[in-house]
Amino acid sequence: MVGYYPPKDLGEASQSHKKNLRLKYYPQINNTIFASNTFTMQVIKQYIEDNKQRLLDELFELLRFPSVSADPKYKADVLNAADYVAKKLTDAGADKVEVCQTAGYPIVYGEKIIDAALPTVLVYGHYDVQPADPLELWKTPPFEPTIRDGKIYARGACDDKGQFYMHVKAFELMMQTDTLPCNIKFMIEGEEEVGSNNLSIFVKQNKERLKADVVLISDTSMISMEHPSLETGLRGLSYLEVEVTGPNRDLHSGVYGGAVANPATILAKMIASLHDDDNHIAIPGFYDDVTELTETERVELNAAPYDEEEYKMDLDIAEVWGEKGYTTFERTGTRPTLEVNGIWGGYIGEGAKTVLPSKASAKISMRLVPNQTSEKITQLFTDHFLKIAPPFVKVKVTPHHGGEPVVTPTDSIAYKAAQKAIAEAFGKQPIPTRGGGSIPIVALFEAELGLKTVLMGFGLDSDALHSPNEKYDIFNYYKGIETIPLFHKYFAELSK
Ligand code: BES
Ligand code: MN
Ligand code: MN
């Protein structure tokens, strides 16, 4: 079997969607009578085995682009990453591949329609990444992927390059083994980490092109490889910046200190007042629209395995923290939260400078749950924050971006297909969980395209997304490539 499929032929090989490639590539498998499931699994495993190194090398190449969407300094790298994705989609066998221009970074589109009568899966992912700083905390450089202890260390290794690329490679696998059972469309964007504003315009303008039966996304986490899970919800987001201004210039802290309000102190007090003693958020009306879980839902959610000691050990904290009356899973998955993401003002350079700053600022995010809306929460926050501003300072609130919460169905054909695929690949039924993160476009897929989403993520919360030393286990990468064709197979079968 070795060398039956030289990577250099990939571009041409993929152009012809020949029948019975399976016979050509897997003669000895095909000569034996297997149960159909066993057969598919054999084909998948064999393909991954035969292409192991190349599947990894290509991901590494993708990880080497510093495609940081938030920082204009990386503009060329983000654009190059888009081109690379387009090339790889073409090589894998996609038609109508296009790097679609937007007012921001492009969206890479590609599709393979094998039969209009078959169902269509729309795969979404993002090739942009979060900034890598603080750089000095990385053990190896963020854009030079490095393997340590079976894990790939790089910015974007898990979020989301490692995860969306599994779909490109699973698609290649299905094309090369002639096992693609349904139509497939890819939409890989470059602005997820900055709010997907241009993607929402693209979605509204391309409803026909994006027609599908379900959206499939791998950009979330599992509990662990021993406890595979499927996220059934994402939180929404309101992100804004606040600025507190005191005197018209930085002042000598001895000459003026004690007589003029310090904006840093005022900001700290204002922020501290946003949580009460029970860690509830103290913004009037904040919880008005929150749907409480039923007792059954709570029991189900908390049945997922959770080791608090391990959780604390991983983060090196003495105690967990949060809203009184809720468990850790409930706090991160089903309750709204308010976090300071950054806070600054005054002198932060080397050594000391005695100064009373003129301004202090903070970036604040609020995670939202069903039925809250980012517009209303942003308004409630703004009104409240301006109201609590004392007369000694001026306060400005600037909204950044937002996204709406979603709950994904667990009784759909697509969810069942994901369950079956994971059960087969992992040998265990997946546990439903609620994710704490946000993917703003998911709510829009539903609102604009009428499409539900399946969140089939293979990351781990401990993969350090957005943190230094982000990683993705090589095992998870191959396991994803193995599971995805099974999803398509079961989705096509169950759709009949
Ligand atoms: N992939 C994450 C979201 C995620 C991570 C969901 C883990 C569930 C589990 C995504 O790339 C992300 O980071 N989204 C941002 C929102 C965006 C508007 C900046 C987030 O959640 O902070
Ligand atoms: Mn992501
Ligand atoms: Mn992210």
Commentary on this structure:
With 496 residues, the protein is of the alpha/beta class. It has two domains: 15-233 and 406-494, Zn peptidases (Aminopeptidase); 236-290 and 336-403, Alpha-Beta Plaits (2-Layer Sandwich). 36% of the residues lie in helices and 20% in strands. The protein has helices spanning 10-15, 21-25, 27-30, 36-63, 75-92, 161-176, 197-205, 263-272, 295-302, 308-315, 328-333, 374-387, 413-426, 441-449, 474-495; strands at 95-100, 107-112, 120-126, 146-148, 151-153, 183-189, 214-217, 221-222, 229-231, 233-234, 236-245, 251-252, 337-345, 355-356, 359-368, 394-403, 406-407, 431-433, 453-455, 459-460, 471-473. Strands 1-2-6-3-7-19 form a six-stranded mixed sheet, sandwiched between helices. Strands 13-15-11-16 form a four-stranded antiparallel sheet, covered by helices on one side. A three-stranded antiparallel sheet has the order 4-5-21. α5 (75-92) packs parallel to α6 and α13 packs across α15. The chain binds ligand BES and manganese (II) ion (2 copies). One manganese (II) ion is lined by residues 126, 159-160, 192, 219.
